From TrEMBL:
<keyword id="KW-0813">Transport</keyword>
<dbReference type="InterPro" id="IPR017871">
    <property type="entry name" value="ABC_transporter-like_CS"/>
</dbReference>
<keyword id="KW-0067">ATP-binding</keyword>
<dbReference type="GO" id="GO:0005524">
    <property type="term" value="F:ATP binding"/>
</dbReference>
<dbReference type="InterPro" id="IPR027417">
    <property type="entry name" value="P-loop_NTPase"/>
</dbReference>
<dbReference type="InterPro" id="IPR003593">
    <property type="entry name" value="AAA+_ATPase"/>
</dbReference>
<dbReference type="InterPro" id="IPR003439">
    <property type="entry name" value="ABC_transporter-like_ATP-bd"/>
</dbReference>
<protein>
    <submittedName>
        <fullName>Phospholipid/cholesterol/gamma-HCH transport system ATP-binding protein</fullName>
    </submittedName>
</protein>
<dbReference type="Pfam" id="PF00005">
    <property type="entry name" value="ABC_tran"/>
</dbReference>
<keyword id="KW-0547">Nucleotide-binding</keyword>
<dbReference type="GO" id="GO:0016887">
    <property type="term" value="F:ATP hydrolysis activity"/>
</dbReference>
<feature type="domain" description="ABC transporter">
    <location>
        <begin position="5"/>
        <end position="241"/>
    </location>
</feature>
Length: 257
């Protein structure tokens, strides 16, 4: 299997706070890889390091053979075309209408004519159940709609690999199922590599080829959904069963004094 993302021995602190204390894993080409873990364990920070938005203190990250920490000029541009990060918040440009947000990269970076770019934007918006929103402004959309526009924008860039930061938080169950189906379609029909940070256990089991559980600075388990369901690891068990008592609570209580 071809390696898409390789993370080796990643360490990241913010001041005294240790967020990653030696995180290693590999994501394979065409895989749907879900990262789960309690709030504040560093899932977003992990994605942002892979996307070269935050620098790690130590470790190595490679994306399709590119050394992410050493990228410069053309290679950086190639990296940005290979991998796209979908922000949790959507991070849209408020002064542009929806279609221009989606088509921004095509028009501004690739010089695609506005008419063609708009058609492409409409196609990707339709995949996300957003037909007819082209001329609205982000402020006129619900939070869930903004999230979906951000996904359409990522698809419009046609990257090999998409990092989704909690794409289904704040979405209703039907919209969650639609987004899950889209991730599966991206994988099966378009051979994309998808890395998804999620809190939603049902959604994770539905889409993942493999799931990694991040806790207390480390990956405590990686496995297929079946392996994760059968895991005897107390952290994994507490997390996927949503139990109030267990090792996760004990660590949180210790940290909070
Ligand atoms: N730029 C930053 N400066 C300082 N601390 C930060 C910064 N970004 C994140 N942190 C801290 O790093 C830790 C991990 O944050 P992160 O957002 O990655 O958690 P998460 O697992 O994605 O949480 P959630 O599931 O709640 O979204 C948190 O304690 C957070 O406060």
């Amino acid at each position: 299997m071809k390696e898409a993302i390789v993370v080796r021995n990643l360490r990241k602190n913010f001041g005294e706070k240790v967020v990653h204390d030696g995180v290693s894993f590999t994501v394979y080409d065409g895989e749907a890889f879900v990262i789960m873990g309690p709030s504040g364990t560093g899932k977003s920070v992990l994605l942002k390091q892979i996307a070269k938005l935050i620098e790690p203190d130590e470790g190595e990250i490679s994306v399709y053979g590119m050394d992410v920490l050493k990228l410069k000029n053309e290679e950086l541009e190639k990296f940005r075309e290979t991998l796209t990060y979908v922000f949790q918040s959507g991070a849209l440009f408020d002064s542009y209408p929806v279609w221009y947000n989606v088509a921004f990269y095509l028009i501004e970076k690739k010089g695609v004519k506005k008419k063609i770019a708009r058609e492409k934007a409409s196609y990707y918006l339709s995949l996300l159940g957003l037909s007819g929103t082209e001329d609205l402004y982000p402020s006129e959309l619900s939070g869930g709609m903004r999230k979906r526009v951000a996904v359409a924008r990522a698809l419009c860039m046609n990257p090999k690999c998409i990092l989704f930061d909690e794409p289904t938080s704040g979405l209703d169950p039907v919209m969650t199922a639609i987004l899950d189906r889209l991730v599966l379609r991206l994988k099966r029909e378009f051979s994309k590599t998808c890395v998804v940070v999620s809190h939603d256990v049902t959604s994770a089991f539905r889409i993942a080829d493999r799931i990694a559980i991040l806790f207390n600075g480390k990956i405590v388990e990686i496995g297929t959904p079946d392996e994760i369901k059968r895991s005897e690891n107390p952290v994994v068990k507490q997390f996927i069963n949503g139990e109030p008592e267990g090792p996760i609570t004990a660590v949180l209580e210790r940290k909070n004094g």
